[in-house]
Design goal:
This protein is an alpha+beta fold. It is about 40% helix and about 20% strand. It has helices at about 10-20, 45-50, 60-65, 75-90, 115-135, 145-155, 170-175, 185-195, 200-205, 210-215, 220-225, 265-280, 315-325, 355-375, 405-410; strands at about 5-10, 30, 40-45, 70-75, 100, 105-110, 140-145, 160-165, 245-255, 285-295, 300-310, 335-345. The strands form 3 sheets. It has a 5-stranded mixed β-sheet. A 4-stranded antiparallel β-sheet has the order 9-12-10-11, sandwiched between helices. Strands 3-2-4 form a 3-stranded mixed β-sheet. A hairpin with a 2-residue loop joins strand 5 and strand 6. The longest helix has 21 residues, at about 355-375.
Length: about 400
């Protein structure tokens, strides 16, 4: 039997800010937009703010109405990446199979490191204590026999806790939970399942697959297998690079995007990041995926064929704008991501078009920009439109933690 941990650092952004500014530990705190300009959304909050009704993702002005004493600080992503790296180094003391899921979450495979499930729970407790003692933040850890249930376990007890879900917990603890507790099920799928009488993970596990397929399509088999506890995907060794199937970047915004023009700088920023990583890997892409998450944390994903393979940011951005124009319903957007797939190498032959010469010139221009950025820093040269908001800055080589699961979950 496998022994898998899912380690999820609690209220991560807020916890790191309190680590660097200890006086914030005793006040209601939110990490978010510019407090002086009184705009933006809550990216994270501490327990004091949570107790006063502050919610992640809500506009800051609403949070201040609930909690006039709320202290708001801007995000410091360099700090978060530093603590995240240190946490992963601690996990590596116990296993060489550590798989980051996001900046504050990682799976750890103890199967080859412990001789029993009970020993795995003991190791999880040791990791929990070590994270708190050495880093000054807390972590919730789920222990189970697959990755899906390990993540589910890390959500059941927060903060600073270990939850064990052995096979014997399947019917007694896991099956009575809402389907939403499973990693790949979002609010849209939850509503679909409820319409056919599926209200628990157990209902999902025992539903006829033909019924599920008519409702969920190709994901029906996968989700039902997960509900049954059948997840066997091997975990990579730390630092091991699996074959690249997609490249993407995403960002949670300091303030919601509420009108079409607001998308322009962030779309160009993300597409430039993705295109730079394509060129660095000597790849081109044929399909673009756009992921949007609104202020209510509901996600959607749409995709578009790019025609001839490309690694040029302008082509990617135009495809994004077409998807936004066609599919965005006007709901305020909290997070946005761009991912490309169906990758091929630069050296591979492809069908030329009448625009190929212009495409080649644009690619050469962007390679020159890459060279400048690698020598002097990513933001040494930038499109003017991306400089409209100084908070919309990410480094494609440092902040590319977008996981394909985000896009899968958006579909569901």
């Amino acid at each position: 039997m496998r022994v898998i941990l899912h380690c999820d650092m609690n209220s991560f952004y807020a916890s790191v800010e309190m680590l660097y500014q200890p006086h914030l530990r005793t006040v209601p705190l939110a990490v978010g937009g510019d407090e002086e300009k009184r705009h933006g959304i809550v990216l994270a909050k501490n327990e004091w703010a949570k107790a006063r009704g502050v919610k992640t993702g809500e506009p800051l002005f609403q949070s201040r109405q609930k909690c006039p004493q709320l202290v708001v600080v801007p995000p410091h992503y360099d700090r978060y990446h530093r603590i995240s790296h240190m946490a992963n180094q601690i996990y590596r003391r116990y296993s060489d199979r550590v798989e980051p899921f996001s900046i504050d979450e990682s799976w750890v495979d103890l199967t080859g490191s412990v001789d029993s499930f009970a020993k795995g729970v003991q190791v999880a407790e040791e990791i929990r204590r070590t994270i708190e003692q050495e880093l000054g933040v807390t972590v919730s850890i789920g222990v189970s026999y697959n990755k899906i249930f390990a993540k589910l376990g890390s959500e059941l007890k927060k903060p600073n806790a270990v939850t064990a879900l052995p096979p014997s917990a399947l019917q007694t603890i896991i099956w009575p939970l809402s389907p939403r507790a499973l990693l790949f099920i979002g609010p849209v799928t939850e509503k679909k399942l409820a319409r056919i009488g599926i209200h628990t993970i157990g209902d999902l596990a025992n539903a006829p697959e033909t019924t599920l397929r008519s409702l969920l399509g190709k994901w029906a088999h996968t989700l039902r297998q997960y509900a049954l506890g059948h997840e066997y995907a091997p975990m990579a060794y730390w630092g091991e690079s699996p074959p690249v199937k997609s490249i993407g970047n995403s960002t949670t915004l300091p303030k919601n995007l509420a009108h079409a023009d607001a998308f322009v700088p962030v779309v160009y920023m993300l597409c430039e990041c993705v295109a730079e990583r394509l060129r660095l890997s000597h790849l081109r892409a044929e399909v673009l995926h756009l992921w949007l998450r609104d202020a209510d944390l509901c996600s959607q994903t749409r995709q578009i064929q790019l025609g001839a393979p490309t690694q040029v940011s302008g082509r990617l951005a135009k495809a994004c704008f077409r998807l936004i124009h066609k599919h965005w319903d006007g709901a305020p957007i909290r997070s946005i991501g761009v991912q490309v797939s169906q990758l091929s190498f630069e050296k591979d032959a492809y069908q030329l078009s009448i625009f190929s010469q212009k495409e080649q010139k644009n690619a050469e221009l962007e390679r020159c920009i890459d060279d400048l950025r690698h020598r002097f820093g990513h933001w040494s040269i930038a499109r003017a439109v991306t400089l409209q908001d100084t908070q919309l800055k990410i480094d494609p080589l440092e902040e590319n933690s977008l996981h394909s699961v985000a896009f899968r979950k958006g579909v569901l």
